[in-house]
Amino acid sequence: MNTLSQIIALLPAGTAELVGTWVAALLTLAILSYVFGENPFFRFAEYLFVGIAAGYAGALAWNHVLWPRLHLLLDDPYTYWHYGIFFVLGLLLLARGVESLSSLGNLPLAVLFGTGAALAAGGALAGSLIPQMGATVRSISPTTYGGGLLGWAYAIDAFLLILGTIATLATFHYAARGRGPLNALGEWAIRTLGRVGQKFIMIAFGALFAGALLTFFAVLRSRIEFLLFDWLNLFGVG
Predict the structure, then answer these.
(1) Alpha-carbon distances, residue 136 vs 73, 114, 116, 164 (angstroms)
(2) In whole angstroms, what is the distance from residue 33 CA to residue 229 CA?
(3) Of 36, 78, 114, 165, which is most buried, counting CB atoms within 10 Å of its CB?
(4) Residues with Cβ < 8 Å from 31, sequence gap 6 or more?
(5) Whole-structure pTM value
(6) Which pLDDT belongs to residue 130?
(7) pLDDT tens-digit profile of 38-52?
(8) d(CA 128, CA 123)
């Protein structure tokens, strides 16, 4: 990194910015060429992006995760002995590439899957379900929010939040059919709430899709503006 910085410092003023602009413009054009179908320029830009991302992720993992912990393990093994277990499990994953030793990789895979499942379940409960249930404990009285039109707006918002949460949870309710009028009434209410919950889910998915589209168009606009005002400006056109 220091050598690269020294080389850049030796270049004439503005050369690094010029080269960076050209590289960014050519890669942008290569990505946008996909509108004409699959082509070598797009594949080159795609592979380059994946390679750089993988290299950056690997360097980041080594410099900020693996090497600091390996350094602690080597300097003070009595305190950080548990890091040795993690490194051994990581090395056992490499045994998956050798057919005769592939069974040794089952242990770290089991640890990964078990830990991942526990984190996913805990994250779903602590990060989504419980906070969402807590957020539904809200007043739907307009006077709570000061009354008037603004109070009614907040009350309607609270009511929709409560209804949406209960209806969405009812969508995923599965139970055996019971007997008697009360059971029939309860099943009808659950089915009705479930149908309402499906509409809320569709609205949520539509909002997420719209947000993804807006993000896509925002990125596309920024790249087009870059081509028009930064790259073409080099030719005196922008």
Answers:
(1) 47, 32, 29, 9
(2) 20
(3) 165
(4) 42, 45, 46
(5) 0.64
(6) 83
(7) 899 999 999 999 999
(8) 7
